[in-house]
Amino acid sequence: MSSTLADSSRPNRPARPAVAWIGLGIMGSPMSENLVKAGYDVTGFTLEQDKLERLAAAGGTAAGSIAEAVRDADVVITMVPASPQVEAIAYGPDGILANARSGALLIDMSSITPQTSVDLAKAAAAKGIRVLDAPVSGGEAGAIEAVLSIMVGGEQADFDEAEPLFEALGKTIVLCGPHGSGQTVKAANQLIVAVNIQACAEAVVFLEKSGVDLKAALDVLGGGLAGSTVLTRKKDNFLNRDFKPGFRIDLHHKDMGIVTDAARTVGAALPVGAVVAQLVASLRAQGDGGLDHSALLRSVERLSGAHL
């Protein structure tokens, strides 16, 4: 197996690397399947048996443990909910660092604190394992369609090697700086997305209470300066009150905690972001944490007198 992450379809390039994928949730399952479709040998591990069966049905291989998944991998990719889960799968005798081979590349695509990424890179280096933090934006639809935005932190050489793999997962792929930089940019992304969803939700309630045709209004707004990827992706959620999770409120609550804490550390004021963070927290406290983040609409409706 080669440790060079290259596309075998390109002249004079070695075969694609063997990939271990840890974490097969809403994002991880379609992303790992896209690597299989692109010709990568993917061995996956997660705690949910049905997700392992899904990967196997897609042409991947199910492993019985992290150690089994990573032992022969050139690349290990992790996609889990938060910093504690990354630490749980990375460290300890049964974790990635203890079982992956020296020279492997660990790509963490979870959304975690920048400091967790920096600490992981240092610990991995002691084992001869290289690390990139590479969180993504685009939600479940972006993962399925392989059009994610991938923001990367780490060394240029490692990024260059990983780029063909990233190209099977996303469309906008950028090295943002040293270890932790990808996570910092992802935190900013989540700030923008949350504020944007909140603004859209407020507009929806305002339009409906004014008696305007909501679909027509959102169509025309989407074509002007108010248009955004958020509005395009979430318009049907608003129209149909369909809050099946593509990205859960619980996870956005975690991310708003990351960005507000990181902003405090560097001395950046986030006045609007802080308010939206509280609205996300309040929605979660009301039992809506498992819903899609477009369910911020429910919070605005409650504030406007609706009994949900």
Automatic annotation (TrEMBL):
InterPro entries: 6-PGluconate_DH-like_C_sf (IPR008927), 6PGD_dom2 (IPR013328), 6PGDH_NADP-bd (IPR006115), HIBADH-like_NADP-bd (IPR029154), HIBADH-related (IPR015815), NAD(P)-bd_dom_sf (IPR036291), Tartro_sem_red (IPR006398). One of its GO terms (biological process) is glyoxylate metabolic process. The active site is at K186. It holds the Pfam family NAD_binding_11. Keywords: NAD, Oxidoreductase. GO terms for molecular function: 2-hydroxy-3-oxopropionate reductase activity; NAD binding; NADP binding. This is 2-hydroxy-3-oxopropionate reductase.
